[in-house]
Amino acid sequence: MDRPKTLVSHLEELRKRLLIIIIVFISITASLLFFPSFFDSFSARMFKWLYSYFLPIIKSSAIQVSSGPVFIDPLEPMLVNLKLASFVAGIITVPVLVSQIFAFVAPAMTSRRDRLVLGGLLFGSIALFAAGLTLSFFLLVPVTFSILMTYGISMGLVPMLTAGKFFSLAFWMVFIFALPFELPLVMWFLSYLGVISPERMKKARKVMWVGISIFSAIITPDPTPFSMLVLTVSLILLYELGIIIAVMFKKKTAKIKKSKKHNGKREAK
Question: Residue 77: which of 167, 142, 158, 149 has the closest Cα?
C-alpha cells in the first residue's frame, strides 16, 4: 500500500507540473517570435493575416483607410508581436495545462465518478471556450468592428488604426465574448457541489434571462443591438444547456446511489 504523500512531496510535484507548463508556453512563444526568421516570424505572419481578415470589413465601412495598420512608437510592432505570440501560445498550451491539472488532482480523488467529473469539467471548458472564440472571432468581432468604424465615419473622422490599438481591441473583444461560454460548466459544477439545485436553476430562469440581457448590453461595445442580441441568445441557450446537464447528472447520480443501496440490502440479506 502506498504511503500518503507529504506536503513537501505535493509541493515538489506541483513545482514540476508548473515547470512543464511554463517551458511549453515559453518554447511555443519563442518559436512564434523567432521562426522562420526574426523579421518574418510566424507571429508576424499571423498579425498580417489577422488584419487582412478584418480589412475588407473596415474598408466596407470607411471611405479612406490605409492598406495596413500604422505604428507611432518604434517599440509598438515588437510589443504587438509579443502579445500575439503569447496569446496564441497560451491557447496552444491550454490542453497541456488541463492535462497537468488533471494529473495532479486525480490521484487525490478516491472515486471514479469524481475523476470523471473533474475530467469533464476541465476538457469541457476547452471545448466551450473554443466555441466562444470561434463565434466571437467570425461573427461578433467583425460586426462590432464594422459598426464602430461606421460610427466614426459618420462623425466625419478619418480612420487610421495603429497596430497596438487594433490588436488590443480585437483581443479583448474575442476574450470578453468567449469567456461567458463557460456558463454551463459553472452551473454543472455548482450543482455537483450542491450549491444550487437544477430545480432552483429552473425557477431562476426568467431572472437569469434578464441578467444575461443586461450583462450582454454592458460588455458589447457597439451601440446597435445586433451583437447584444447574438450574445444574449447564445448565453440563454447555454444557460438552458447547463440546466439540462445538471438534471441529467442528478438523475444519473440518483440512479447510482439507488443501485448501491439495493446491492447493499441484497448483501445484508
Answer: 167
| Contact yes or no for 88/46 (Cβ under 8 A) | yes
What's the grid cell of residue 27? 518554447
**Nearest residue to 46 via CA among 74, 84, 12:** 84
Nearest C-alpha neighbor of 238 from the set 198, 181, 200, 189: 181
pLDDT tens profile 60-76: 655 455 566 778 888 88
Strand partners, 70: 162
pTM value is 0.70
Distance of alpha carbon 159 from alpha carbon 65, whole angstroms = 6
* Distance from C-alpha of 188 to C-alpha of 245, rounded to nearest angstrom: 6
Closest CA relative to residue 93, chosen from 44, 159, 27, 31: 27
Q: Which residue has the cell 454551463?
A: 184
pLDDT tens-digit map of 215-246 = 888 877 666 677 788 788 888 888 888 888 88
Q: Which three cell numbers stand for residue 149?
A: 468604424
pLDDT at 206: 87
